[in-house]
């Protein structure tokens, strides 16, 4: 499958990888996190005094909800080391063609049976409203748990980022893409279910149309998502995410060497009442 790569010590962001990202709107990196890195991150995010203290619920417009927490700066804890590690930042900079900064990170938690759906949307459909003039952003979606069709994995319309920004409106408790336009795009572009093993990563363009179904299975689906914006694409309007802030990269080994789980200083967690693209319930 094109855009699908094994991530190991020999992986390079080659011209072929960049072409796949530019043409398809995404790349998949299998085994992006090692078994030990994944276990260490799981321990950190599951800690009762870790990032999930700041979780809230996102209404899917039906009878299900998805828990999430979101922060604007990476910080110095284990989750910050992941967002700042060279293999993630360097890959993102090569795909976007320039220096990037941390726009935000979020932990998405779809619990068994109750995890809500996310309607068709583009990330730039949200971020356009924040005074970001160009779609020069990407999101790194890192699977903490297995993601497949049974528990509501991501679906993407391959190449849809080349359609440009689609109008977005409030759909239920979410901001979603104009469904008539999505229907037209689905008639000409292939739909892909992005099935991931724990530790796999999907890096996708901010204009790629994507959605996910509700989790009706007995298994949870948690994912760690870091969004990067090009330095040259600094927002023009104050909003609930950061302006350009220099990103201090760390070596990959910092993920395992970091023991800080509960010191969340400087992460700047989102107060969901400041985000006009969602309907939420504070938890």
- Strands of the widest sheet, in order across it, are 1-2-12-7-14-5-4-3-15
Shape: globular
Distance between the termini: 41 Å
Please write the CATH class name: Mainly Beta
- Write down the overall mean pLDDT: 93
Q: Report the CATH superfamily.
A: q2cbj1_9rhob like domain
Q: Structural class of the secondary structure composition?
A: alpha+beta
- Into how many domains do the coordinates divide? 1
The multimeric state of the shown protein is single chain
Strand content: 25-35%
Q: Count every beta strand, where a strand is a DSSP E run of 2 or more residues.
A: 15
Radius of gyration, in angstroms, nearest whole number: 17 Å
In N-to-C order, the SSE pattern is EHEHEEHHEEHEEEEHEEEEHE
Please summarize the sheet with the most strands: 9 strands, mixed
Poorly predicted regions: 278-283
CATH architecture: Sandwich
């Amino acid at each position: 499958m094109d855009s699908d790569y094994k991530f190991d010590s020999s992986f390079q962001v080659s011209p072929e990888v960049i072409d796949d990202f530019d043409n398809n709107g995404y790349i998949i990196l299998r085994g992006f996190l090692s078994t030990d890195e994944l276990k260490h991150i799981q321990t950190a995010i599951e800690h009762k005094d870790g990032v999930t203290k700041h979780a809230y619920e996102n209404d899917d417009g039906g009878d299900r909800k998805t828990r999430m927490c979101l922060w604007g700066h990476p910080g110095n804890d284990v989750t910050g080391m992941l967002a700042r590690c060279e293999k993630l930042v360097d890959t993102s900079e090569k795909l976007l063609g320039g220096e990037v900064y941390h726009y935000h990170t979020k932990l998405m938690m779809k619990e068994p049976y109750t995890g809500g759906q996310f309607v068709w949307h583009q990330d730039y459909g949200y971020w356009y409203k924040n005074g970001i003039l160009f779609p020069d952003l990407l999101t790194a979606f890192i699977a903490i748990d297995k993601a497949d069709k049974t528990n509501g994995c991501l679906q993407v319309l391959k190449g849809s980022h080349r359609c440009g920004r689609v109008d977005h409106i409030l759909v239920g408790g979410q901001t979603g893409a104009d469904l008539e336009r999505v229907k037209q795009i689905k008639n000409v572009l292939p739909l892909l279910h992005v099935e991931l093993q724990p530790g796999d990563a999907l890096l996708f363009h901010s204009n790629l149309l994507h959605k996910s179904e509700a989790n009706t299975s007995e298994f949870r689906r948690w994912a760690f998502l870091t969004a990067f914006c090009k330095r040259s694409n600094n927002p023009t309007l104050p909003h609930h995410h950061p302006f350009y802030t220099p990103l201090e990269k760390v070596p990959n080994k910092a993920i395992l060497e970091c023991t800080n789980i509960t010191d969340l200083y400087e992460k700047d967690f989102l107060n969901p009442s400041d985000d006009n693209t969602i309907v939420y319930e504070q938890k």
